[in-house]
Amino acid sequence: MSLSRSPSPNRGGGWSSPGLTTPYETLSGRASPRKGYGEVQMNGSVGTSNVTWATAKARSDELKKPLAMHRAYRRASFFGGGSNFVIILAANQGGGVMEWKGAREWAIERDSVKNKKKYAKKWGYNLEIVDMSTKKRYAHEWRESWEKVDTIRKCMRKYPEAQWFWWLDLNTFIMEPSYSLQKQVFNDLASNTYRDINLYNPLHIAHPFNNSQLDPDSLSPVGDGKASSIDLIIPQDCAGFNLGSFFIHRSTWTDRLMDIWWDPVGYEQRHMEWEHKEQDALEHLYINQPWIRSHTAFIPQRKINSFPAGACGENGEDSRIHYKETDRDFVVNMAGCEWGRDCWGEMYNFRELSNRLNRTPWEKFKDGISGRIKATRAKPEKKEGES
User: Fold this and answer.
1) Neighbouring C-beta atoms of residue 23, cutoff 10 Å
2) Which residues are CB-neighbours of 141 under 8 A, at least 6 positions away?
3) I need a labelling partner for 83 at 20 to 30 A (CA). Which of 101, 141, 187, 303 fits?
4) Nearest to residue 330, comparing CAs of 255, 247, 268, 263?
5) What does the alpha-carbon distance between residue 314 and residue 246 come to, in Å, rounded to a whole number?
6) Which of helix, strand or coil describes residue 40?
7) DSSP per-residue string spanning 188-245
């Protein structure tokens, strides 16, 4: 007979380990007994207590209730609204016909997934971790890198109540978990985004269109100017659109966009020219299709997608692009680290920096004391005769 847990060595249940045999209902509230196993109990009898796994689990569930209520509060649409958001994290990107994953790749994935899980749990957001390993449906040449569109569509079906979907590449790290998406972006969407690409236009796209046959929204540099019409929010780096971290909204317009974006005809005709796959395809649509621009907004890169110094660093540090510790940027994206940089080194350094920046006052106090002790011990002892 197989058991899910080891059987108790005591008749009637209970355990001989001191930490497990003490009833929770003790006068002192202690979690461990004052007396050893087999000694006189509070009622004067000799023997062990009846703490079983069922009792312990019930107590554990009772302690978890306040946390569960807190998460439910943040998920409720009339309070925190966390259920309106889905974080989509691309995971398991190596393997298949592309490359084998080593220890560092697994470590990056572990840290990135843990980071997103902790953040989603804190704010009550949905989290979808997507297995991006090679599949037969994407096996045609470069189609392996086009899964984003298909994956987003599936998530929209899986979370029918959610409104906004936040795509994050694996090599991203949320540096400031205390920032909610509502406060960082959506509570004031009009101020946190810009519709006129001329404010920052690394691709030098002519905007707006100059065609009298188009409707007023298509001829306006800001569309209709209403935040409610924004369905796609993307940052731009030094080379153009960056889809390592972007938002897309559930709407009829979005359904139409994904149909065109994923269209195999366009892919077959242009995929050899589109070096950055679905990213270049979206740029192509934005440049040539007026209806795309009227629902697209841009967000300053450092709001949701800061780069480390090694990315887009040909012209030195750019205050619009690169992470700045003193400004406590929200998210860092180690984009392109696999091309001549150390992905694991960057992930580790940013993880440690985030932990240090987000210490509690008590942790800061302890670290300060520890630092003073280490500094004292490090001072060289003076030799006799030295002044």
Assistant:
1) 13
2) 271
3) 303
4) 247
5) 24
6) strand
7) GHHHH-BS-GGGS-TT----S---TTS-HHHHSTTTT--GGG--EEE-EETTEE--SE
Residue that is written with structure tokens 């997507």 in the block? 130
Q: What tens-digit pLDDT sequence spans the chain (387 residues)? A: 444 444 444 555 444 434 434 343 443 444 444 444 344 444 444 444 456 777 767 776 766 565 555 555 555 554 468 999 999 998 875 544 445 678 888 899 999 999 999 999 999 999 999 987 655 455 555 455 567 888 999 999 999 999 999 999 999 999 999 999 999 999 999 999 999 999 999 999 999 999 989 999 999 999 999 999 999 999 999 999 999 999 999 999 999 999 988 876 666 666 666 666 788 889 989 999 999 999 999 999 999 999 999 899 787 889 999 999 999 999 999 999 988 899 999 999 999 999 999 999 888 888 888 888 888 887 665 555 555
Angle between helices 252-261 and 278-288 (to 10 degrees): 120
- Say how many residues make up the chain: 387
Say which residue the tokens 């439910």 belong to. Answer: 72
DSSP summary character for residue 138? G
Q: Which amino acid is it at 374? A: K
Residue pair 10/16 in contact (Cβ under 8 Å)? The answer is yes
Q: Tell me, what amino acid is at 196?
A: D
Strand 240-241 with 236-237, pairing: antiparallel
Residue 17, burial from CB neighbour count under 10 angstroms (0-12, 13-18, 19+): exposed
Say which residues have a Cβ less than 8 Å from residue 325's Cβ, sequence separation at least 6: 353, 357
Q: What six digits make up the tokens of 348?
A: 């580790």
Q: Which amino acid is at 346?
A: E
Q: How far apart are CA 135 and CA 64, in angstroms?
A: 39
The type of residue at 221 is P
